[in-house]
């Protein structure tokens, strides 16, 4: 397998923030059917347009900087200190917003071809 060296700020916009997953070309070291990794840069006030529902994967969202709130049907979780994270599993409907500028890293598994939230 070849080696890929990149920069999240440069590479992420090409795939709506995703750096690794099934959607990368076969043969690219970033192609994976096991896991997806996303670099998310969110200005203050940024909000997901719709709830994510019917999710079949597990996810981990890690705060790199700023403040980021994940909303689940039964509670909201605000990540405010660098390194704060939250993990949720299949069936957890969720949405999010950034009260302040935020950078987050999301890891999701497995990588499911064809799954995409509208918008």
Give me the secondary-structure topology.
Elements: H1 8-11, E1 18-20, E2 36-42, E3 58-66, E4 68-72, E5 75-79, E6 85-88, E7 94-97, E8 102-109
Could you characterize the architecture of this molecule?
- This is Glyoxylate utilization-related uncharacterized protein.
- InterPro entries: RmlC-like_jellyroll, RmlC_Cupin_sf.
- It comes from Catenuloplanes niger.
- The protein has a domain at 39-109: Jelly Rolls (Sandwich), CATH 2.60.120.10.
- Strand 4 and strand 5 form a beta hairpin.
- The chain is mostly beta strands.
- A five-stranded antiparallel beta sheet has the order 1-2-8-3-6. A three-stranded antiparallel beta sheet has the order 5-4-7, with no helix packed on it.
- The termini are far apart.
- It is built from one helix and eight strands.
- 3% of the residues lie in helices and 38% in strands.
């Amino acid at each position: 397998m070849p080696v890929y060296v990149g920069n999240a700020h440069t590479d992420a916009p090409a795939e709506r923030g995703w750096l690794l997953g099934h959607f990368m070309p076969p043969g690219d070291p970033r192609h994976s059917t096991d896991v997806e990794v996303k670099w998310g840069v969110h200005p203050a006030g940024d909000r997901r347009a719709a709830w994510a529902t019917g999710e079949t994967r597990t996810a981990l969202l890690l705060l790199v900087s700023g403040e980021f709130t994940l909303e689940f049907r039964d509670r909201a979780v605000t990540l405010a200190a660098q390194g704060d994270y939250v993990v949720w599993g299949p069936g957890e409907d969720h949405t999010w917003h950034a009260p302040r500028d935020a950078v987050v890293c999301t890891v999701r598994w497995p990588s499911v071809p064809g799954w995409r939230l509208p918008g």
